[in-house]
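Q: Convert this sequence to C-alpha cells.
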Amino acid sequence: MRVIVAHSGETVELECDADTRVETVATALAAATGVDVADQLVVFAGRRLESSETLGAHELPTAAEPPPPPPVDDDAATTPHPKPSHVFMYMKSLLRPEATAPPVPPMVAVAVEASPPPPPPPPPATTAAAADHPLDASPSPLARALPDYERDFRAHAQRASSFARAMRRRFEHCERLILETHAMALAVDAVAENVDAHFSYIARRQVRSIHWFPYDRVGVVNVIP
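A:
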C-alpha cells in the first residue's frame, strides 16, 4: 500500500493486507518518515483511519491506488479519468493555524566526475615494435600526429560522458521533485474537499435547526381602550 506524505510529497510503500491494523501502519510510517505516531493523521477517502481499526474496514489496501503522474500535455489534462483514492498522512502540528512551513530539503548537488587527463604523447619510437600506435613509427610527421588527435578525441569523449551522466542524474532528480510536488497538490485538494464537505454539513444542520413560521405569535397588543 502506498501512503503519500502530505508535507513532503514522498510516497511510502508498505507491505500490508486487509487484516493489518492501522496502529501497525502508523508505527511503520513513523519509522519511515520520522513523524511521531501521535502527530500523524492518516486519511483515506475523507475519513480518518483510527488506530483500533483494520485496513479491511476501509477496503484497504486494494482500494488505494498509486498517485498518477502529472499531465504532460493539454490533451492529457482534458481527458477525463476516474478519480483515484489515495491514503494520505498529515502532520497534526502542521495543520494548526500558528504552524510554520516545514523546512525545505536542501538541493542535491550533482558534480561532474573529473575525467583523467589525457596521457602524454609517447616519445618518438625508432622501431615499429617499440611504438604504442602503429603510426607512431611512421616516417611521415603528418601520420605521426594522427595518434595524438585520437588520444585528444578519447579524452574529450570521456569528458562528455561525465557531463552526460551528471545531466542524467540531475534530470532524474527534477523528475522526482515534479512527482513530489504533484503528490503534495493531491494532498491539498483532499484537505480542501474535506473542509468543503464539513462546511456543507454544518450549513445543512444549521438550516434544519431554524424553524420559523410566518404566523407565529410574536406578542399581544390591546388596541381596545
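The chain has two domains: 2-94, 107-225.
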